[in-house]
Every structure is written in C-alpha cells, then in structure tokens.
Write a structure and sequence with these properties.
By secondary structure, the chain is of the alpha/beta class. The chain contains six helices and twelve strands.
Length: 210
C-alpha cells in the first residue's frame, strides 16, 4: 500500500503547495451557536449517552468527591500518574500504585481504579482525549484497570468539536480518544463492556481553578 502511495506521489514537485494550504479548511469549526455553559451541558449529555457516569463539582469539592467515588466502587488500590495533583486524592485512603514502566499489564489488572486528568474534552462527540501528559500517565494505565475516573476542568478543557480539539493537540503525542466505557457487540448486538478498556468510566467536571 505504501508503495502505491509513493508511486502516486512520484511526479509531485518538491515545491508543490503545502498540504495545510492545499486542503480547503473553510468548513464550520463547530455546529450551532452555543454559550460556554451550553457547550459544557452538551458534553455532559453526550458522555452520559455513551454510558459514562458524570459528576459535577468545584475545586473545593473535588477531593471529597473522588474519595466518595473510590469508596463507592470499593477501590483498595488506585493507579496514580506521576503528575497527578496530590490534593486530588488527599481525602482518599486506597493504596497508591505509582505509574512506572516496570508495572506489567498483570500488575495493572489487579488494580481497582485509576484517576487521571485529560488533555481536552469534545462536547459534540462526548469524547475525552488523553495525551500522556504527567497528570494522565501512560496509555496502558487507562486501558487495563476496570474503573477509570477522569477529571475535566470546565470550561477550560472543553471544546465544541473535533476540529477545535485537533488544533489543541500535538499529533506527535500518544493520543487516546475515549467515548464512554469500553464496549463491543457481537453479531446479535449483545453489548459487552470492559473488553478492551475500563468497564466503568466516571467523568468529573470541575468548575473553577486551572
């Protein structure tokens, strides 16, 4: 396939119009005209439609809420990315499993929960994007544990559409796009969750702060 692409491009001059100029980008960057609050509400609605569990709080209530969510899930261990703000889990008492390269998939499979931040959240698609930043850790820690709590700061980390999200993201980073808990269906459309990622996704929308 790559050989066919190379052959098709063989006669393209080196000084041809750059791709970002040759492709028409005049399409609408988002659908509709929403206020900031309406955009956040749309994100919450679409996250819930994908069977994520959505919570709202502010910076002052975040630690208490995370403690309650971990307790309700019965989590005795939680994976902690290296740059997760310490105050997020100051009220929780599970054993912290720090994200290290030495942690094998089997090790992570025995962990009850993982708590991360996110890079950006897309309202129109109900999608969370993680880019491996310090508050999110490596991709594997959000794919193996059965329970993922993702913290999104609103409105700063929320955009309306995919084009707006792409403008914020670095394509060279390891991007993970999450739309609800992991799920698949067989030929009879029987839904099975937790096949290739967390069975339970909880999203905390935090107003105020960073």
């Amino acid at each position: 396939m790559l050989g066919r692409v190379r052959r098709a491009l063989a006669d393209v001059p080196a000084d041809d119009t750059p791709y970002d100029m040759a492709v028409d980008r005049s399409y609408l960057p988002e659908h509709g005209d929403r206020t900031t609050a309406q955009t956040v509400d749309l994100l919450a609605e679409n996250l819930a439609d994908y069977r994520a569990i959505v919570h709202r709080t502010d910076e002052h209530g975040l630690a208490e809420l995370l403690m309650r969510l971990l307790a309700e899930h019965g989590s005795r261990t939680v994976v902690v990315p290296p740059g997760l703000p310490p105050y997020w889990l100051k009220a929780a008492d599970p054993v912290r499993i720090h994200d290290r390269a030495a942690n094998t998939p089997d090790d992570l499979d025995r962990v009850d929960s993982v708590v991360t931040g996110c890079a950006v959240a897309i309202a129109e698609t109900g999608t969370l994007v993680l880019d491996g930043s310090p508050d999110q850790g490596r991709r594997r820690i959000t794919l193996v544990p059965d329970h993922h709590i993702c913290v999104v700061h609103v409105p700063g980390q929320v955009v309306s559409s995919v084009p707006q999200a792409l403008a914020r993201l670095d394509p060279a980073r390891p991007l993970t796009w999450i739309s609800g808990p992991s799920a698949t269906s067989d030929i009879e459309l029987d839904r099975v969750e937790g096949v290739h990622g967390p069975r339970t996704l909880e999203v905390v929308l935090v107003s105020g702060g960073s």
